[in-house]
Amino acid sequence: MDFSSKLLENAVNEVSRLPGIGKRTALRLVLHLLKQPSENTKFLTEALSGLRENVNSCEKCHNISDTVICAICSNPNRNASLVCVVEDIRDVMAIESTAQFRGLYHVLGGKISPIEGIGPQNLQIESLVHKVKEGEIKELIFALSSTMEGDTTNFYIYKQIESYDVITSTIARGISVGDELEYADEVTLGRSIVNRIPFEQSIKS
Ligand SMILES: [Zn+2]
């Protein structure tokens, strides 16, 4: 691309670093911003830099949060002994939107994936095992997507905690194999949490 302005070129280059955004889309977005009142660009840049500088992860569940303990973990009306294991915030949002789950979450931050070089040590697994060891959790629900990485991660965690006094279950497979949770509709996802099955049953089938 041949730019008539260095400033425009810089902005396009930065925007095109985002996933799924090519140079042409980046140019379209930047030109759109140029047509808007300058406050809009100011709000956008402030929102992004504020996010980067101030966002935290909850000390208990590792979900993205503005506070040390997130709103879900600090809600006394939620059942702290029932914990749903998910990959990231998108899964928390998907499950919350079903309004079928009143326990807490544990956000792993990804799935074990040797191809991508992600091992158990790169995920929030140790703190989860610790919570189980301490007896804080009565039931653990595995709600990772049913891909090979999801299954491997579930099984790895299960092996770490099977000797402890904790019930393990997995969301019912209304979610088809390979589906990511965030794409499941609310009714299907809600039903799959309510109708969860013992984890042992899922690894035998
Ligand atoms: Zn939390």
TrEMBL record:
SMART domains: TOPRIM. One of its GO terms (molecular function) is zinc ion binding. The keyword DNA damage applies. InterPro entries: DNA_Rcmb_RecR (IPR000093), Rcmb_RecR (IPR023627), Rcmb_RecR_Znf (IPR015967), TOPRIM_dom (IPR006171), TOPRIM_RecR (IPR034137). Residues 81-176 form the Toprim domain. Keywords: DNA damage, DNA recombination, DNA repair, Metal-binding, Zinc, Zinc-finger. SUPFAM superfamilies: Recombination protein RecR (SSF111304). It comes from the Bacteria. A zinc finger (C4-type) spans 58-73. GO terms for biological process: DNA recombination; DNA repair. PANTHER family: RECOMBINATION PROTEIN RECR. May play a role in DNA repair. It seems to be involved in an RecBC-independent recombinational process of DNA repair. It may act with RecF and RecO. Belongs to the RecR family. This is Recombination protein RecR. The lineage of its organism: Bacteria, Pseudomonadati, Bacteroidota, Flavobacteriia, Flavobacteriales.
